[in-house]
Amino acid sequence: MSDSIQELHQEGTRLFEEGKYSEAEPLLKEVLMKRPNYADVLNKLGIIHNLRHELEAARDYFQKAVALNPRYTEASLNLAITLNEMGEFEQSKDVFTMAAQEAKPTPSSLDPYAAGKLANEHYKVGNIYLDVAMYEDAVLEYRKAIRLQPNFPDVHTKLGIALRSLGNIEEAIVHFSKAKDINDKYGPAWVQLGLTYYIKGLTGLAFEEWEKALNQNPNLKQAETYLKLLKKD
């Protein structure tokens, strides 16, 4: 997720959770225009339209969310409720039954919605530990988040920072590189990888990473600052 989209998503989610639906809606729709495959955004927009009693629009959003993620229990239940309100009782019953079946955990799986929620909580706790320099605890929380949701570049980046702070430079490089593989436009991963190379004395590689980071995002001030310092040296 690029920084601008992530900021829109976070702000839209914050407004939504505060019940400021009219303010949240345009932000969430902007996220959806740039990333149409965000099931949680589709679900939130469906809820907003349902609360306005715009049931057909709500149904369409929920259906799209479920099509993207059939195990998205919350969206499935919201769809069932909306269909029921529309008088589509048989269809509502079918959707509700399917949602109940999909939500049943198996020994090797977890509802993706629940997994995402749990991963986010571990990530938040990890950030708190990182902020107070409790690096080993931060690493544990980030690893839990990645085990639940392995494709979040920001989590891999924060894990890399915590590992580097513990002196685990090589493993840190692995996670910064993984973050870049997941999303090559995620600037912080490039910046932190460059800093790690610089710490190792690999100045050329550091310069290369920061230049690439700045090319990806010209407003990435951290990369710009490091390049200026390096050129000054």
Q: Helices, strands, pairings?
A:
Elements: H1 3-17, H2 21-34, H3 39-51, H4 55-68, H5 73-85, H6 89-103, H7 112-131, H8 135-148, H9 153-165, H10 169-182, H11 187-199, H12 203-216, H13 221-232
Helix pairs in contact: 1-2, 2-3, 3-4, 3-5, 4-5, 5-6, 7-8, 8-9, 9-10, 9-11, 10-11, 11-12, 12-13
Describe the structure.
The structure is a single chain. By secondary structure, this protein is an all-alpha fold. It folds into two domains: 101 residues, Serine Threonine Protein Phosphatase 5, Tetratricopeptide repeat, CATH 1.25.40; 121 residues, Serine Threonine Protein Phosphatase 5, Tetratricopeptide repeat (Alpha Horseshoe), CATH 1.25.40. Helices cover 79% and strands 0% of the residues. The model has no long low-confidence stretch (mean pLDDT 84).
